[in-house]
Amino acid sequence: MEDPRLSPWYQYLDIPQRELVDVSFLLLQKKDLLFELKDFSFLVFPFFKVYEGFLKKVFFDLNLINRETYQGRRFRIGRAFNPDVRNHQRDEDWLYDNVETVFGREIARQLWETWLQCRNRVFHYFASDKQALSLQEAKQKIDMITQSMQLVATHLLSNRIRLAKQAQNRK
To answer: pLDDT per residue over 1-18, tens digit each?
Structure first.
């Protein structure tokens, strides 16, 4: 994996989020010391915390949520961003369609799948399901998170460049 500090998604993060990413990569480098462990979910936790903050920051920067919502404790991405919420359950916080409009169906769906696979399937306990993540599975979840953030960061950057060129051409 290339140095994350060079990627657009890493640059988009706030300093506390960058520190969480750095901790996860540091832990991954120490994997030889952890070979006896049976569950590597703990490697995904800091990355997922970053992913949640990243999504909230994107939603705020795109004016899909306001400052109070962004800084508050009530907003729940799992509910607001869930494309499977029934029409009668959608409220003023529901924003999946807005995200799909900005990024397109494919990226919006990938962002949601990343949420499902890297949060719900890692953080929740299901009695009938294996709970432990192998080191390889943890790395796959981290890769999924970074790929999703990279897609969004690249999209936002290309739109900024396009808008700047349009503004330059108007002058």
So the answer is: 577 788 889 988 989 999
Distances, alpha carbon 137 to alpha carbons 42, 72, 82, 142, 147, in Å: 12, 32, 24, 9, 15
User: How far is 139 from 78, CA to CA, in rounded Å?
Assistant: 22
User: Using CA atoms, how far apart are residues 160 and 171, in angstroms rounded to an integer?
Assistant: 17
Pairwise CA distance, residues 61 & 155, whole Å: 13
Question: What does the angle CA 102 – CA 103 – CA 107 come to, to the nearest 5 degrees?
Answer: 155
Kindly report, residue by residue over 131-145, the tens digit of the pLDDT: 788 889 999 999 999
> Which residue, among 92, 21, 91, has the nearest Cα to 52 in the 3D structure?
21
What lies within 8 Å, CB to CB, of 65 at 6+ separation is 56, 59, 75, 93, 95
- Amino acid 111: pLDDT: 96
> Residue 125 is encoded by which pair of tokens?
């306990």
